[in-house]
Amino acid sequence: MNTETLKKTPLCTACEQAGGKMVDFHGWLLPVQFNSIIAEHKAVRESAGMFDVSHMGQVWVEGPDAWPFLQYVNTNQIKNTPACGTYSHITDEQGRIIDDAISFCLSADKFLVVVNAACVDKDVAWFKKHAEKFNVTITDDSAQWGMIALQGPKALAHAEKLVAGVADMGRFTIAEAEIFGTKGYITRTGYTGEDGVEIMLPAQAIVKVWDHLLQDGVKPCGLGARDVLRLEAGYLLNGVDADGSQTPYQAACGWVVKLAKENFVGKTALQAQKEAGIAQRLTGFVLTGAGVPRGGCKIFKDGAEIGYLTSGTYSPLLKGIGVGYAPAELPEECAVEIEIHGRLIPAKKVKTPFYKNRV
């Protein structure tokens, strides 16, 4: 691996010093694991773990039309109450998913949109294309920020030592904060199914937070554990579970489409699809036989191929789990088989999320 050509986050050196095994992730040098994926999974489910998510994008949408603009380029009803955030899909005219993102309202004319790392350039170009109709400015500020996701049942206790009052923040909210003399933001979302926060600070200051959390006993975690945790929690992995050819309805995220609101990009196509119905939907499966499913594995029923997995893994809680596209009418608990290394392994369809905690 030629690391010289890869982008590096402000926490790259700190991750390496903490023992991170670094890999190429969409052009970024990021840790896949530190100790073991199972140990890191256990830390997040039982205590607290932290992830370097500085590769995520931060895009500012500002101006008198900031909210109407975000309403237009998002499928969901974007909250315009200060401090509130909204998870949504950004779709093209055919209703196909470009990205999933969270829009945080700082004020009536200022929003922070957190987007996926691999989609920053594409999202910004898409925003600017549609911004011509609105009185807004679009600013990609991604390179200026570092971000740590602090997750787990004890995450808020650790966060309170940095910023008092974090535990009183509601889910999907944002607050300005000063940490170690530097101003930034705290958000209350997550991608693991556990409670927690994201800490956003200018790149030069985020290392201090990482070092503090390490000294406070928080376990550093990598992409491997993050993928297991998010799959257990039933979270979509854009670019994998939705590759640009699926709509929110096909990706089992119809709840983010608000057809009742005024016109938005993709509305006509999505309305037509909802009325006509879909043939295949992203569906959860649990192996009832031994094996570890992976993305690309074929799904069979009664000897006939009916679909394929987009994500699959070994879950310490549930053993072999995966999601993939299968007939939308497939009944719950339906017996199927997943092809793994040429062998058909018994499995069954289940509702997602596979794991749901008290958050």
Report on this structure.
It is globular, with a radius of gyration of 20 Å. The mean pLDDT is 97. The protein is an alpha+beta fold. The protein starts with 6 loop residues before the first strand and ends in a 9-residue tail after the last strand. The chain has two domains: 1-277, 2-Layer Sandwich (Gyrase A, domain 2), CATH 3.30.1360.120; 279-350, Elongation Factor Tu (Ef-tu), domain 3 (Beta Barrel), CATH 2.40.30. Helix 2 crosses helix 7. It has helices spanning 12-17, 37-46, 66-73, 120-131, 155-160, 206-215, 223-232, 267-276; strands at 7-8, 21-25, 28-33, 49-52, 57-62, 85-91, 97-107, 110-115, 137-140, 145-151, 174-179, 182-187, 196-202, 219-221, 280-287, 298-301, 304-315, 319-327, 335-340, 343-350. The strands form four sheets. A six-stranded mixed sheet has the order 11-12-13-10-4-14. A six-stranded antiparallel barrel has the order 15-18-17-16-19-20. It has a five-stranded antiparallel sheet with strand order 6-7-8-5-9, covered by helices on one side.
